[in-house]
Amino acid sequence: MEQKRIQVFHEGQCIDAYRFFGAHFCVENHQKGVRFTVYAPHAVNVYVAGSFTDWGNGKLKMDGKDGIWALFVPDLSEGESYKYVIQDYRGNLIYKADPYAFYSEV
Q1: Which of 31, 55, 58, 69 is most deeply packed, by most CB within 10 A?
Q2: 85: how many CB neighbours lie within 10 A of its CB?
Q3: How far is CA 48 from the centre of its chain?
Q4: What is the number of H-type helices and E-type strands within the chain?
């Protein structure tokens, strides 16, 4: 994510955060996949877990900077279930739904 957009987000002036937060299909390095991005300013680590990782044993670690965590996962299909796994400073793992998701289960 570009530095100017991050600055505008942190200033509370970002009106299009839905365009880059959440899960979005894209192409990176000639591979189709999904870019996951979430804001978790107090997290020590953030992971993506879902049906494609057996919900935990294959958690995928996200990269974080300025409280914004992101990861590209290749070859995902539309409709995959997922959650963010937030690790706090005590080591607790908290499974959270994506606040920018296009769809949510009851």
Answers
A1: 69
A2: 23
A3: 7
A4: 1, 8
pLDDT tens digits for range 8-19: 887 888 888 888
Write the DSSP string, 41-59: TT-SEEEEEEGGGGGGTT-
Query: So what's the pLDDT on residue 2?
Result: 73
CA distance from start to end of the chain: 31
Give the global pTM: 0.89
Distances (CA, A) of 101 to 4, 22, 33, 72, 89: 24, 6, 16, 16, 26
Q: Residue 7, CB half-sphere, CA atoms under 13 Å: how many?
A: 3
Q: Distance between CA 96 and CA 93 in Å, rounded? A: 10
